[in-house]
Amino acid sequence: MYELPHAANASRSSRGSGRPRGERRLRAAAVGLVATVVMSAGLVPPASAAGTANASAGRDGHAATRAALESVVRDGVPGGHVLAELGNDTWAGRAGTADLTSGRKPRADDRFRIGSITKTFVATVMLQLEEEGRLSLDDTVDHWLPGLVRGNGHDGKKINIRQLLNHTSGIYSYTDDKDFKRKEFGTDFLEHRYDTWTPRQIVQLAMTHEPVFAPTDDVDKWSYSDTNYVIASMVIQKATGHSYAHEIEQRILRPLHLDSTTVPGTRARVAGPSGRAYSKLTGELAGPGAPNSTTYDVTELNPSFAGAAGEMISNNHDLNRFYRALFSGRLLKAPQLKEMMTTVSVKDLPNFSYGLGLMKMTLSCGTEVWGHNGGIQGSISQSMATADGKHVLSLNFNGDWNVHEQRVVDAEFCGS
Prior knowledge:
Beta-lactam-related; eight-stranded antiparallel β-sheet; two-stranded antiparallel ribbon; Beta-lactam/transpept-like; hydrolase; 13 helices; Beta-lactamase; alpha+beta; EC 3.4.16.4; 14 strands; protease
């Protein structure tokens, strides 16, 4: 769902606004960005039982990445795993544990909830529909969904699809609502984990709040909102007659043979192979999470509260293949890919900008990477790559507190 409380909210408006953690992370620091790249076919072999991290090809060319992965786990998160590809070299690393009860180690092919990385899939479908002439990015929300975005200053007649996808709509993010955060990210989650949310309910919740700012093309205003992508999914359904999940499956998952990737809807389980997901349920993802506070198993949950903002499940192999296909032009033609990679800068994050379902980040070494991060209860992920798709990285940690996953990204692309 939002990036589910996983990407952070970084508002550029004078008024500021929170952003979901999944989204929330973005605010805090540049959420995980990530990006591109196409991948080879076959699954990478599971990580071996020996050692905390290992090279799938028996080579150790990722010492810095291995060290960063292990350091994140030492800071308290249960476990994590990463898959990196550079040219013909493929490396899989792991650290910690995937299951605190059994002691099972992470596997290279483990599936996990990807949070806001879902947004790149949604934006890709929307741009395919534009290419086919079935909609325009300049269409207003009201054109497709009359009267949906209305109230407390929101006006769907003044917001277009492009503004939904690049977070310049100003629409309030429902994941910032205090009651919502209490139910979904605090200990009340234990009572509400199987609740079903509809897209309309989610938008109605957002409409009970004022917008962060009026919809704009002003580059000085940007605010991450999970509501934007829930609305986008409703536009896809109206334009095609099918759910956004159906369109993702038919247009992306099946053609690319992403067999470990699903759009679960209301299904609560994560199909194997997979580890467990853990949270401190502090009310914020990747929040402080006192080391001695209770750790909860949050693996099973009804992800409809995230919907098109962050409900999908995948693994590192599939995510790498997806981004490679995207940046190679296999999923979008040149004009649409250019549109997707046209970014809005974020005032307080000078090395970060956002396109249509894509983040762009310039790392400390000057390397530019594209992609997205994702957060949802018990799961923090990133998928990033160079724009040419030659170097790609996907990772996941099975805890949502004290996660410093950016260390792994920096280590892989900068070597430190």
